[in-house]
Structure to design on (486 residues):
C-alpha cells in the first residue's frame, strides 16, 4: 500500500471563508483500517454555528431570488468537478471511512449524480393556475424556497448523504449549513472546496465540524431563522430533533434506522438472489441503513441458498481499502465491532449455527470483522430485532407467503425491503403489502438519484432524491388576485 495523500490540517468553511473555530481547538480524524491519525479539523462550538447561521441568513435573499438556470449551472459545475477528481476524493473517503477504494469511487459518482439531477429539477419548479369561483378573480400558486436549511449527515456515506440534501436545497434556492459526522468530516470539507471553485456565492454553503453534536444541533434547532432540518442517522436522535423542531415549527426530513427483510421464494432465480444478497448485505461493510438484516428463505431452498451464500461471502477479501482486491474494509470504530460480535455471540448462544466467518480480527490494527453467515436464526435473537450494522447475514426459513409478509412487517421500522420471485402476481402482492418506503423486487441495489428515497413508520419522514426530494425544500404560496375585470 502506498499512501499518496498528505492531508494535514483542515479549516471550517463559514460564509465563504476558511477559518479556525472560536475555541482554536481541533480534533483528529482516524483511519479505521490502521488506527492512525490522518488529519485534524477545527472543533467548532456554538459560536461558530451562530456565525454560519448569520452567513446563511445574509445570503438567503439574493440566492433565493436568483434564476434557476444560474443555480443549475453551479450544480452542474460542481458535479463535473467531483467526477474529474473522483480518485482524489475517493482516496480521502477510504482513508477516513474505510470502504474499499472501488466503493468510494462509486460513492463519489453517486454523489455527483444528485447534483446533476437537481440541476435539471431546478429548471422545473412549476406553479399552477386554478379556476376561480368569481369571474373577477384569478388564483395562482407559486413555489418559493423555504429559506435557511441545515443538514446533519452520517459517516457511512460521507459524500452522497450531503449531496442528496445539498442538491435539492441549492436547486430550490435555499442556503444550507452542513454538520457532518465527526468521524468523517474531510469528505464534507472537500465538497465545500468544490462548490467554492464552482462559483457558489459566499454564505450559501457552510460546513461546520465538531465533536459536540448535541450543542451544535441545539443552535440550529433554537434559531427560528433556520426553517428546515434534514437528518440521516439513528431513530433515537431523529425523534429528539423532531421534538426540538416543534418549538420553531421547522420542517424536518428524517431518514432513520432500518431493519430490512430480504425474502427469497423457492421460484426465484437462485444465483441472482445470492448475488444480490451479497451486494445488499456487504455494501459498505453492512454499515448501511438499507442493508439486508433479516434474510428469509423458503424452506425448500434454504439449505442450498445458505451454502451458496456462505461460499460467496467467504471469498470476499477483508483489509485496508487502499489495497487492491479488497472487497470488505473495516468497520467505522471499535464500538461497531463490539456490537457485531455481541449479535453473533447472542445468536450462537440461542442456537444459531455459524456457516462462515464469525470472528473479529485481533492480530492486526483496524476494526475488522469477518463476513459472516448465520443459519437457523430465530425470532429470539438480537439480529432479528436490532440493526446489526455490520457484515452478518442472518438466515431464517419460512413456509408461506402470508407468513413471511407478517414476519417481515413485524417491526417498528420501514425503510427498505427486498424480495426475489418469478411470480408476477406475487411481485405485486408483496410490493403493495410490505410496509416499507423502498421495495427492491428482484433488485438488491435500488438506490438512484431520480427515485424517492425514504421510509415509513419509525424509519423516517420525507423523501430524498427525485422530484419529490425537491418539494421538501419548497413552500407553496397561494395568490388570490382580485379586480381582474375592473
Amino acid at each position: 500500500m502506498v499512501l499518496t495523500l498528505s492531508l494535514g490540517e483542515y479549516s471550517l468553511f463559514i460564509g465563504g471563508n476558511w477559518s479556525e473555530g472560536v475555541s482554536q481547538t481541533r480534533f483528529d480524524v482516524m483511519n479505521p483500517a490502521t488506527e492512525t491519525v490522518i488529519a485534524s479539523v477545527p472543533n467548532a462550538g456554538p459560536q461558530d454555528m451562530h456565525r454560519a447561521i448569520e452567513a446563511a441568513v445574509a445570503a438567503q435573499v439574493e440566492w433565493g431570488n436568483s434564476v434557476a438556470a444560474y443555480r443549475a449551472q453551479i450544480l452542474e459545475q460542481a458535479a463535473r468537478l467531483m467526477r474529474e477528481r473522483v480518485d482524489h476524493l475517493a482516496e480521502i473517503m477510504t482513508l477516513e471511512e474505510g470502504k474499499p477504494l472501488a466503493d468510494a469511487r462509486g460513492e463519489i459518482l453517486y454523489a455527483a449524480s444528485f447534483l446533476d439531477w437537481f440541476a435539471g429539477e431546478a429548471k422545473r419548479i412549476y406553479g399552477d393556475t386554478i379556476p376561480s369561483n368569481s369571474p373577477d378573480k384569478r388564483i395562482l400558486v407559486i413555489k418559493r424556497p423555504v429559506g435557511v436549511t441545515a443538514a446533519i449527515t452520517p459517516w457511512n456515506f460521507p459524500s452522497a448523504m450531503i449531496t442528496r440534501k445539498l442538491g435539492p436545497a441549492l436547486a430550490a434556492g435555499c442556503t444550507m449549513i452542513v454538520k457532518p459526522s465527526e468521524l468523517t468530516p474531510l469528505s464534507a470539507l472537500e465538497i465545500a472546496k468544490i462548490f467554492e471553485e464552482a462559483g457558489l456565492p459566499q454564505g450559501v454553503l457552510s460546513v461546520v465540524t465538531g465533536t459536540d453534536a448535541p450543542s451544535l444541533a441545539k443552535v440550529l434547532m433554537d434559531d427560528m431563522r433556520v426553517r428546515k432540518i434534514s437528518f440521516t442517522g439513528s431513530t433515537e436522535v431523529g425523534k429528539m430533533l423532531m421534538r426540538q423542531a416543534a418549538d420553531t415549527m421547522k420542517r424536518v426530513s428524517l431518514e432513520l434506522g432500518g431493519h430490512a427483510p430480504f425474502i427469497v421464494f423457492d421460484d426465484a432465480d437462485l444465483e441472482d438472489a445470492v448475488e444480490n444478497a451479497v451486494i445488499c448485505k456487504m455494501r459498505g461493510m453492512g454499515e448501511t441503513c438499507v442493508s439486508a438484516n433479516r434474510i428469509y428463505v423458503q424452506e425448500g431452498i434454504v439449505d442450498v441458498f445458505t451454502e451458496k451464500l456462505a461460499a460467496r461471502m467467504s471469498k470476499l477479501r477483508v483489509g485496508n481499502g487502499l489495497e487492491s482486491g479488497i472487497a470488505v474494509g473495516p468497520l467505522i470504530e471499535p464500538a461497531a465491532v463490539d456490537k457485531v460480535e455481541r449479535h453473533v455471540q447472542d445468536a450462537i448462544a440461542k442456537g444459531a449455527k455459524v456457516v462462515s466467518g464469525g470472528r473479529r480480527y485481533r492480530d492486526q490494527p483496524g476494526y475488522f470483522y469477518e463476513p459472516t453467515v448465520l443459519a437457523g436464526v430465530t425470532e429470539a435473537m438480537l439480529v432479528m430485532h436490532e440493526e446489526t450494522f455490520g457484515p452478518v447475514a442472518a438466515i431464517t426459513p419460512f413456509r408461506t407467503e402470508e407468513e413471511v409478509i407478517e414476519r417481515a412487517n413485524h417491526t417498528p421500522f420501514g425503510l427498505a425491503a427486498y424480495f426475489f420471485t418469478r411470480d408476477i402476481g406475487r411481485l405485486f402482492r408483496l410490493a403493495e403489502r410490505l410496509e416499507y418506503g423502498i421495495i427492491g423486487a428482484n433488485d438488491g441495489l435500488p438506490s438512484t438519484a431520480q427515485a424517492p428515497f425514504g421510509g415509513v413508520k419509525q424509519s423516517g419522514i420525507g423523501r430524498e432524491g427525485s422530484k419529490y426530494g425537491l418539494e421538501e425544500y419548497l413552500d407553496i404560496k397561494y395568490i388570490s388576485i382580485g379586480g381582474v375585470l375592473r
